[in-house]
Amino acid sequence: MVRFHWHVDGGQSAYIPPAGIAGQNETCPAVMGVPANYLRPHAIRPIGLLLAHGADADDWDSALMRALVERFAAAGHIVMRYHCRQKEARRQRILERALESAALSPLALASVEQWVVVGYDNGARVAAAVAAKTRIRIGGYVALSYPLLEPAPPPPKARAGALPPEDSEGPLVKLAEALPLPALFITGALDARCPPARLGQVFAQAGPAAAMDARGRPPGPGRAAGCTAPIAEFLEALQRGADNGEAATLRDCALPPVTAVEQVAGQAAAPGAPAALPAGL
């Protein structure tokens, strides 16, 4: 049984028992980053972040994840991350429980109005699945180097003889159908698993916000550069939309639309040329 304890003022702790997961016996650690001044009124911003690591579970404490926690917790956001070595279907269920526990924690319950799920590598695929089915209010989706061309795992109850998926477009399509959200894709001009041109084709009409790494390389566990600034702009645009009474809406976002992804990729190939890309599911 996983136990969630939250530190509160006075050295005490509050305990929230998570919902049970059938067959789950392994303990999966999770850590919630909070602003240093969290006890002050209005210190916690109304958007929380949930981070999902990639195929290597140890990346949950990589330079990339630490940079995201430090940057956005310092900016007033609650940031939840977890560590799970199990198969992808199980990781979805545990990530969903981590989100529920964070959202129901004493620190978030009274302050956080919506959550943004952020996934790296195949953690972006896991995050898309969780965002599509969770009962917690999701305001946006962020994918760092989404494995677009990597075959997704077959569904747990796939029909006998059914062909496995050829790529990972399916989770994005399901997310768009279940919960149309502002989304942000951060990739690189040379990202073999998430080519900018293919990303532009998937969202040719009006797609998610996308941002491009100007150096032509995709995000990685040891590389946070090129990730924090687009995510910060994405969150600010979401908040501007919420302040204007427009739930799950990007307002006056400075990032270019994903339909311009090929143009941005070309700019990124030029040495020293800055490039950044968003749009809407």
Automatic annotation (TrEMBL):
<feature type="domain" description="KANL3/Tex30 alpha/beta hydrolase-like">
    <location>
        <begin position="49"/>
        <end position="161"/>
    </location>
</feature>
<dbReference type="InterPro" id="IPR029058">
    <property type="entry name" value="AB_hydrolase_fold"/>
</dbReference>
<dbReference type="InterPro" id="IPR046879">
    <property type="entry name" value="KANL3/Tex30_Abhydrolase"/>
</dbReference>
<dbReference type="Pfam" id="PF20408">
    <property type="entry name" value="Abhydrolase_11"/>
</dbReference>
<protein>
    <recommendedName>
        <fullName>KANL3/Tex30 alpha/beta hydrolase-like domain-containing protein</fullName>
    </recommendedName>
</protein>
